[in-house]
Structure to design on (223 residues):
């Protein structure tokens, strides 16, 4: 069976682009990083996951990987403490309130509790602007449920080294206050990235119209 196109495109960027650091923001229990390893990526990985239960599973699962680090923290545009809304669906927790649309199309995603967590900027975590980085080509994956813009705003130094960005785009608002897909595409275009992949990940169960998509962006040659 032929691999999905998004997997082929991701592998081309990771392996063909000499990426030496994969930053997995919103790693959950590590499925994404494990998949990247299975597809041949051998460089360093840094996983960020704020929720306690998921982080414990992630850390135990990755203990045998010597070039992978696990950080228990959310990522955004500031350093400190924040509160995450924990969803009944493992991958739907968010720092933002959920919309009624999301709850209606996926009732299992309703929030069940909150959890206080650390939040960091990627620039401050990697001490960028203070000391030279030990990596040079970065692939940035964001699975942060509507918080993508905040993560990017806290990563201006890191973005200078980023060759690829993977994140979710919302065609309809599923987290209150999150940017729409056109705003995100334009923002990334303005800072030097073009879209190269689009994969539907959430659709209306009646109409099958797309609600959210996973997208990959690469740095433009003129940026």
């Amino acid at each position: 069976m032929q691999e999905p196109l998004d997997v082929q495109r991701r592998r081309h960027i990771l392996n063909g682009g000499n990426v030496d650091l994969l930053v997995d923001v919103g790693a959950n229990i590590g499925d994404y990083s494990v998949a990247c390893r299975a597809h041949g990526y051998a460089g360093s990985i840094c996983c960020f996951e704020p929720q306690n239960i998921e982080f414990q599973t992630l850390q135990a699962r990755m203990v045998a990987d010597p070039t992978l680090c696990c950080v228990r923290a959310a990522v955004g545009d500031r350093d400190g403490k924040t509160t995450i809304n924990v969803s009944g669906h493992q991958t739907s927790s968010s720092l933002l309130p959920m919309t009624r649309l999301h709850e209606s199309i996926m009732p299992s995603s309703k929030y069940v509790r909150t959890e206080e967590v650390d939040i960091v900027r990627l620039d401050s975590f990697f001490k960028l602007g203070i000391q030279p980085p030990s990596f040079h080509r970065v692939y940035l994956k964001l699975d942060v449920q509507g918080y993508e813009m905040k993560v990017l705003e806290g990563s201006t130094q890191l973005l200078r080294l980023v060759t690829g960005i993977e994140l979710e785009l919302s065609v309809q608002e599923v987290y209150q206050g999150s940017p729409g897909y056109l705003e995100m595409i334009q923002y990334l275009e303005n800072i030097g990235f073009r879209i190269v992949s689009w994969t539907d990940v959430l659709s209306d169960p009646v109409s099958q119209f797309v609600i959210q998509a996973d997208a990959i962006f690469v740095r433009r040659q003129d940026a």
